[in-house]
Write a structure and sequence with these properties.
15 helices, seven-stranded antiparallel β-sheet, nicotinate phosphoribosyltransferase, six-stranded parallel β-sheet, homodimer, 432 residues
Chain lengths: 432, 432
Amino acid sequence: MTTTALFTDKYELTMLAAALRDGTAHRRTAFEVFARRLPDGRRYGVVAGTERFVEALQRFTFDEETLATLDFLDPATREYLADYRFSGDIDGYPEGSLYFPGSPVLSVCGTFAECVILETLALSVFNHDSAIASAAARMVSAAQGRQLIEMGSRRAHEEAAVAAARAAYLTGFAGTSNLEAQRRYGVPALGTSAHAFTLLHTTADGPDELAAFRAQVDALGVGTTLLVDTYDITAGVANAVAAAGPELGAVRIDSGDLGVLVRQVRDQLDGLGATGTRIVVSSDLDEYAIAELRGYPVDSYGVGTSVVTGSGAPTAGMVYKLVEVDGIPVAKRSSHKESHGGSKRTLRLAKPTGTIVEEVVHPADSPPPVPDGLVGQSVAVAIVRAGDVVADFDLAAARRRVADGLTSLPWDGLKLSRGEPAIPTRMVSVAP
Amino acid sequence: MTTTALFTDKYELTMLAAALRDGTAHRRTAFEVFARRLPDGRRYGVVAGTERFVEALQRFTFDEETLATLDFLDPATREYLADYRFSGDIDGYPEGSLYFPGSPVLSVCGTFAECVILETLALSVFNHDSAIASAAARMVSAAQGRQLIEMGSRRAHEEAAVAAARAAYLTGFAGTSNLEAQRRYGVPALGTSAHAFTLLHTTADGPDELAAFRAQVDALGVGTTLLVDTYDITAGVANAVAAAGPELGAVRIDSGDLGVLVRQVRDQLDGLGATGTRIVVSSDLDEYAIAELRGYPVDSYGVGTSVVTGSGAPTAGMVYKLVEVDGIPVAKRSSHKESHGGSKRTLRLAKPTGTIVEEVVHPADSPPPVPDGLVGQSVAVAIVRAGDVVADFDLAAARRRVADGLTSLPWDGLKLSRGEPAIPTRMVSVAP
């Protein structure tokens, strides 16, 4: 499917039909994407999905085949959709930016008709990608500079896995196991072998780990990573060095008490002269397990399930809300689902040292003054103007933005334990 | 992208390269998909993804453009992949079947080369779809026959959302908000309007809910569902009946203390003569909230986040393991990652009443005898033979299978609370 138009909830099109019929469809509106809160106990979120959303927006068109599936719509609505092309403006946080509760991550302005039907697509992309990036950034922070490899494709929907690999890379992971993420986004693909390869080298005489390792080294060179825990790890390490010599690239351990095993394996490798051989660990790692292993000689972490499922928070919980109609702020009046009317932008306040102190969300056309002694940075950038993409997207720049963002947090913002958002969000109302 | 070949972890192709080089690639193997355990405290799982996997398998081919992205492979491996087409056999649990820890949900037999490279694709599909189906079935069970509508697309990756809508429908949901799921799988699409539509009808004089409702009824008829909680719910219900008359199809409540509100709204509707108007509730519902509302006059539940994220278990945690090489059972020896060698099938034992009592997993070629007084059913069916699909796929049949499966559980298997699997799994070894 080349069009993205059907990644849409039916009610968006029935609302469109009703609004076209009574003429309200053409009112000027502003919609905003934001999260009312961070997942339980998280201290910051990381915006991801902007580039994917803009790419999908350009394919959000209704061709004849697509319209043929929408037989519940009246002719006027179908006619509107046949000509649909988003012609409004979009502003938003650059990918890799930190966000907090209430941060207007994306602002979409245009007629009600052209904006309302983007709800599901925008939220699907931002809720998924930002959930992954927000979890991944905690892992990057916990790894303190050690290498992280995303290898969770198998635990996620096959297309979500590709987006997850991109989101993890965006936050600072070194690469992914996923080949489509390499093809589509240039994320470095990494990986060598699994237990199946060792088990394959079983004959009527029994297992033959050494034959498996020799075959792998023969095909992939001594720089490869040998998986040493299929049978006995000590024998595995001995076989690995026997097959590759002391120039062996790395060994991987995928089970057991990793801390203890890593020390044993390091000693064994060093004793065999393989002092440059790196140790890769995997096996249901999450940010807490990564942090626990700080004191052990781990060189690289393979992270699977936890990163692709957002480590307990598989969706960022962002919403897409109508905040302004013909210049009038609007908001639902509902307990626990508070929203603030009016189109908004963000001024992020920091100390001169760079440590951020407050997220000030203000009416789009009236930024508040920056208090003395603080530095204010406007967070949002122009992304689309009159339907044309005006932002540059650059995964390398997004990676630097995440790194800078983590550096800018107050010290307790990097704690893995549950707590309040790292900085407060202050909503500044429209001046009376 | 029409090929699915790159939904693959790099290490599968590097293992393939090494196995082609040492000749082991052509050994006859059996791989199995199974879950070592159910998500924490679940009592059963529901298999979903079989049809999607088989469809993706038919597009698992390496065209020139795809091969061009695999420059880390040697020429022999690329040549093998250029001609790749799965030519082995696949057996598995029909979609909608219940599964338990150790159930061999899918068995893939063929050469190592042709089987090993399917790992990520198979697991991505089964882990995602079965996670959703397993959560959705608990909601279906909790709803006790009341209508469930899946409306979580916005909280999931845009493609995962389509598969999630299919998986929820497969377990007994009435339909989905997702239009692509309707187009692709024929899942009924449902839905009417959101708060944005009511808010849109704001003018300089203030909000005008009645105008919004009149516009919706005018466009969609009195059978529509009006969302009554944008401002005051009592006023909303009054406006709804004023706009549509007592023949109004339904009202939706999306916030607040749903139990209390539903009773109030029912009384109000009945007092206004709208005795046939149904009440739809939504707002972060999960299986527990659905069960809590049993005593209240709810007609329909809109379920979002919880169903598309597997209600706390976003992946089914299934693995794809090599279990047999040239007729020799093989297994990794690792604590907590136990697996059982040899190709396996399942006999599910039930009482004559239909209540299941045990999952007997046995060597593929030697089913054990059925104990006196019990009925034995072989669970797996042939899916692919020599590369050709031989199974029929039918979403309606899968829905009946889930319903039958839930009926077959022992009474405590339907409890929502945490507990042991509803029936034990017994692994029968190869006869000595």
